[in-house]
Amino acid sequence: MKDKVVFITGAKGGLGMFVTQRFLAAGATVVGASRSIAREDFPDSNFVAMPVDFTKAAAVREAVESVVKRCGKLDVLVHVLGGFAGGKTIADTDDATWQQMQDLNLTSAFYVLRAAIPHLRKSGNGRIIAIGSLTAVEPNAGLGAYVTFKAALAMLVRTVALENKDAGLTANVILPGTMDTPANRKAMPKADFSKWLQPANVADLALWLADERSAQVTGALFPIDGKFLLDSCGAAGGPRKTSTGHWPTIMKAAAAVKSQSTSGPVPQRTPFYTF
Hints:
alpha/beta; 7-stranded parallel β-sheet; 8 helices; Rossmann fold; two-stranded antiparallel ribbon
């Protein structure tokens, strides 16, 4: 990843922190963006903090242009930003929740993709990695608004892959099951955390998809869930530098888990939060 410029949305979230640290450990120049983020959050000389409200089109366009102006180019976009709210049926879902889920899980992605694609095409081997949700292909009752826009996100990114294959630009979506993050533990304190997906493994897969060896992989969905991936790759208790030797194992696990995974426990009443 040396000499690569990587823009990560949601960089300060529960998963975003792992993704940001993984790309920094690989030697990339990382511009990490969240609604609230500071240089001190990632004490690395290759890190640039950029506060951005991704629900505002003008702010997103300005942020992407700022990345290119400061770094001279953009090679990789990792769109981690998203939000979750659940516990209500479609019939009981209010307008505010529906709009929040659309803004954070779909519209924000549209804004950043629209702004970043022209620059990623110029890279010659640009990469787009979006973090979706396993519920995009295995929906659950009570998560209607969330599931709808995560499914739409997957189709949005696959469309981008088709439209930009001519420029060597790949676009893929990672579909994690329930991840072991502080927000999920708070929302589901009685769940069996040992069965949840470790964020570090999602970060490993994102890094692989940004690598030159993934050049032939585009328009793909990668469903991964906790138990199977942990059994295959070993538990990861926190951010770590991962050897490239783990990547083939992660890829095999990601492909195989589709037939074995579940979306994990579903909270009956879950507060809204972002990651």
